[in-house]
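Late entry, written up from scratch paper. The run itself happened at the end of the previous shift, but nothing got recorded in the book at the time, so transcribing now.
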Amino acid sequence: MDILFYQSIKKELTENILPYWEKYARDTESGGFFGNIDNNNNQNKNEIRSIVMTSCFLWAYSAAARLFNKPEYLDMAEYASSSMMHQFFDKDNGGFFWSVNTDGTPCVSKKQIYGEAFAAYALSEYAAALTEIKKQTLQPYAVMDKALSIFSLLEKYARDPENGGYVEALTTDWKPTTDLKLSEKDIDCEKSINTNLHVMEAYTNLYRNLSIVYPEQKDTKILVGKSLSDLVRVSITKILQQNGHLGIYFNRDWSRIDNEISYGHDIEASWLLWEAANELSNEQLISEVRPVSVRMAMVAYEEGFDKKSGGFENTLINGKKDKTRIWWNQAEAVNGFFNAWELSGSDNFKEAFQLVWKWIEEYQVDKKNGDWFWAVNENGKPDLEQAKGGNWKTAYHNARCCMEILRRTGNAKI
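Output as recorded:
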């Protein structure tokens, strides 16, 4: 690969993405993050704040501190950690509230498992950063203990012991609920790809980082690994469909209740599945997941990738394709095609991730006001009605895209 490609990745991360959120995301009056930022970088101080947004900031800046060995990135991580613990943590029942008001009081207090997964994902990264970068001993234990407490709560209350996988949501005190919907764009369902994909992602990170903070807790790591392995198998046997796409919404028994293809989730899952299997170092699982990951990426390449422009498309619902280039789909396409290239050596995948990155640089990046546009049409025109940042858009997908490429290739120091 041309070194200029990796240099452009690093420049985008360190000179645009990470500085943007450091400058605009923090509401220092409340101690939280703004739930909505428009394309002129005006912050809405009245928008509620979500645990997903806050966790994503904690993860991103912890990961950046580790990748570049730069403690200054932990300033943002520490700010996010303080917000999580003082505003979102449920001291009575454990876990984290789904959202809080601008004054830090609970808004939606139910336990949305998607949000709990992001919290565990971020906390395990932060604990590892405190250990590696700050060389601390006591605080990383407390942080990792919070991540492990979420793991225990999910295993006790959210895991389906009969059918496998994890339910969508529970009440504040971890009881069944009919209030399941993740967002206004989603439907009420008992299980979804989104929730289970991010539980898998969280468990992968917890499994990876546990030994850094608690090298002696081998039995705990075995428990996390068993749950992660089970979820990988559920993903490739229940969530993945015969056509190479993922189902989106399901009943408890994994019977499907949607007619949607999400190209972004397909390509994201293709590399997250491989990451999970590879982290577990289970040769049998690796042999099962490798062809699955490559096939998922190939289906996404053939059906969701615009080879002419380099843009990666959005969805196919009831036979109607949405060709909008959503920011997170572009980021996941870079990672997914890069992963498939590493696994297969296919020049198609190599060309694809470079073309998607070219699209990002030319059209998705907001060269005037910073970071990336939420949505861009197939002709390269941004949708300025969509937020620049907030509860559903943070330094997560695009920062992770850049960090994953630099980490895999050892190019963080170029």
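The CA atoms of residues 10 and 402 lie 7 Å apart.
(Scratch paper discarded after transcription.)
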